[in-house]
From TrEMBL:
<dbReference type="InterPro" id="IPR004424">
    <property type="entry name" value="IspE"/>
</dbReference>
<dbReference type="GO" id="GO:0050515">
    <property type="term" value="F:4-(cytidine 5'-diphospho)-2-C-methyl-D-erythritol kinase activity"/>
</dbReference>
<dbReference type="InterPro" id="IPR020568">
    <property type="entry name" value="Ribosomal_Su5_D2-typ_SF"/>
</dbReference>
<dbReference type="InterPro" id="IPR014721">
    <property type="entry name" value="Ribsml_uS5_D2-typ_fold_subgr"/>
</dbReference>
<dbReference type="GO" id="GO:0016114">
    <property type="term" value="P:terpenoid biosynthetic process"/>
</dbReference>
<keyword id="KW-0547">Nucleotide-binding</keyword>
<keyword id="KW-0808">Transferase</keyword>
<dbReference type="GO" id="GO:0005524">
    <property type="term" value="F:ATP binding"/>
</dbReference>
<dbReference type="InterPro" id="IPR006204">
    <property type="entry name" value="GHMP_kinase_N_dom"/>
</dbReference>
<keyword id="KW-0067">ATP-binding</keyword>
<protein>
    <recommendedName>
        <fullName>4-(cytidine 5'-diphospho)-2-C-methyl-D-erythritol kinase</fullName>
        <ecNumber>2.7.1.148</ecNumber>
    </recommendedName>
</protein>
<keyword id="KW-0418">Kinase</keyword>
<feature type="domain" description="GHMP kinase N-terminal">
    <location>
        <begin position="34"/>
        <end position="111"/>
    </location>
</feature>
<dbReference type="Pfam" id="PF00288">
    <property type="entry name" value="GHMP_kinases_N"/>
</dbReference>
């Protein structure tokens, strides 16, 4: 996974109790099923916090584009509330909380460039030794990650040949031993 320079904006205001979310995008649910609310409620419950928060979410990451917008917002919420409420969780503990919310959310605690395995929650940082530019195209087609994985047909027991993960991976990552993936 690769962190990119595209982000939603989140603002947090301490309140007396509860979690309330406001968003500039009317297509984003602002109820307690939103990952941002789930992250806030997780910290409240697990850390015994007796406060509340009003969260304002300004969406810039396209919804349903596979760029991790909701997951990165949940991770940002965990980090922000850890600081706002002076909870004192370290990155490892924040990653454990993040894993309770979703498979790719732990990645967004630290970001950068990483190889992810398991469900996505096992993260191995990778040193990138040369600059890489990306062009991200968004065809304005919204597909939920859940829908993609429900429809993905992979035989997990069939032996598959390893194929190259990146062309020129050795040059980019300086001899990275993780340059092959099973497809």
């Amino acid at each position: 996974m690769q962190e990119i320079d595209l982000a939603d904006n989140l603002q947090f205001e301490e309140t007396q109790e509860g979690v309330r979310l406001e968003c500039n995008d009317k297509n984003i649910p602002v109820n307690q099923d939103n990952l941002v609310c789930k992250a806030a409620n997780l910290i409240l419950k697990e850390c015994g916090i007796k406060k509340g928060v009003l969260i304002n979410l300004e969406k810039n990451i396209p919804v349903g584009a596979g760029l991790g917008g909701g997951s990165s917002d949940a991770a940002a919420t965990l980090k922000a509330l850890n600081s706002l409420w002076e909870v004192g969780l370290n990155d490892g503990e924040l990653m454990e909380f993040a894993a309770k919310l979703g498979s790719d959310i732990p990645f967004f605690i630290n970001g950068k460039t990483s190889l992810c395995s398991g469900r996505g929650e096992m993260i191995s940082p990778v040193e990138v030794r040369s600059r890489m530019d990306y062009l991200i195209l968004f065809p304005r087609v919204h597909i939920s990650t859940e829908t993609i994985y429900k429809n993905l047909k992979i035989d997990l027991t069939k032996k598959r040949k390893d194929v190259s993960f990146f062309f020129g991976c050795t040059e980019i990552f300086g001899g990275c031993r993780h340059c092959q993936v099973a497809v």
